[in-house]
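re the bet — no i am not wrong, look at it urself. input seq straight from the record:
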Amino acid sequence: MRNPARHVHGAALLATGLLAGAFGYGAANVVPTFGAVPLDVRLTFHTTLMRVNEPVMQSAMALAILTSFGLAVLGRGLPRRLALGAGVLTVTSLLVTLFGNVPLHGHFRRWAATSAPAGHTEFLQRWELFHTIRTLTALSAFVVMVGIAVLARYEPVEGTRRPARSGDMAGGSSRDAAATPARTPEA
């Protein structure tokens, strides 16, 4: 039986990578496009995009949070602490979204149906700032997960020969297990 931390780590890499990629795509492509079109087009597109993105991004954030903290529960030593940090970063992305971007979406929906008030650019710039922050925290969480992959050595739960070290997710490394002579059953 393989160590469950290996599978959770794979899911956490996927989830944090998808979250960082989605936010990164928005920062690199969608936000500059918002600035290149007339305001009424931006508001219509923005409100439609947010409505379509909402279930996808909520699912991606939830999965990234759950798998990051799941890896922190299953890991040991440095990988555990790093996974905990990645979980905090993904929660930060969620909080910035909930308390920064989402309230501004209400203004954008209202303006798309009517017209934007004077001073609307401050709201748009604030949304872009919040989007940059959540993008950077999501990207940081993904980088941390990649770092764990570089540092961690996974072992099958059965047959572990030595106690875990700080870079181990569970048990010893396969090199150490191979170097240790197998126990022979006593008669």
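see?? The mean pLDDT is 86. told u. also The first helix runs from residue 4 to 36. so pay up
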